[in-house]
Design goal:
Blueprint lengths: L3 E7 L13 H18 L4 H7 L1 E12 L8 E8 L6 E10 L4 E14 L10 H4 L8 H8 L9
Antiparallel strand pairs: 1-3, 2-5, 3-4, 4-5
C-alpha cells in the first residue's frame, strides 16, 4: 500500500490547449483520476464507499503552475494524503517531467467526507483513516515520486 501513488504517462496531443501546453482542465482530470486510483489501492474503491454510504467530495483545488508541459512529453504524477482531520483531508500532487526533473505543477485538493444519504459532512471513520499513511513533507513525497539518481547524491 503505497504512501505516495505515482503514474507515469505521455501527454496526449488532445491534452494541450491553443497555446500548445497542457490545458488546465487536464491537470484537474489527472488529479481526480490518480486520487481515485490511490484510494482503491488502499482498499477503498468505489464499491466500498457505496457500501459505507459515504464518499469524498471536493471542497477546493489549488494548483500552482511552475513550468509548461507539452504533448509527447513523459510526465510522472504523484499524489499523497498530507493530513486527515475530523471531516476533511488535504491531498497533494506533484507533476514532474522526468527528462529534466522539473516540477511542472504542484497542487492540493481539500476533500470532504460526506454521507451519501444526507449530503452532509461526517467524521472520517477510523478504518478509513488507518488505510492511508500521512506524508506531510513535499520533499519526502518528491523523493518517493522520482528518487534522486545515484550520481546526484553526495
Amino acid at each position: 500500500m503505497p504512501a505516495v501513488h505515482t503514474r507515469t504517462f505521455i501527454v496526449p496531443e488532445e491534452a494541450v490547449d491553443v497555446h500548445r501546453h497542457i490545458n488546465n482542465l487536464e491537470y484537474l482530470k489527472w488529479m481526480q483520476e490518480i486520487a481515485i486510483e490511490h484510494s482503491a489501492l488502499q482498499g477503498w474503491g468505489v464499491d466500498r464507499y457505496r457500501q459505507a454510504r459515504a464518499s469524498w467530495f471536493i471542497r477546493s483545488h489549488q494548483i500552482e503552475y511552475l513550468q509548461p508541459g507539452f504533448a509527447g512529453e513523459e510526465i510522472t504524477l504523484g499524489t499523497w494524503v498530507a493530513a486527515i482531520h475530523e471531516r476533511t483531508s488535504p491531498r497533494r500532487y506533484l507533476f514532474i517531467r522526468p527528462a529534466d526533473r522539473a516540477i511542472l505543477a504542484r497542487a492540493e485538493t481539500l476533500w470532504t467526507f460526506v454521507d451519501l444519504n444526507t449530503g452532509r459532512t461526517i467524521p472520517i471513520p477510523d478504518e478509513l483513516r488507518a488505510a492511508f499513511e500521512i506524508v506531510d513533507s513535499d520533499g519526502e513525497a518528491q523523493e518517493l515520486i522520482l528518487p534522486a539518481k545515484e550520481g546526484d547524491r553526495e
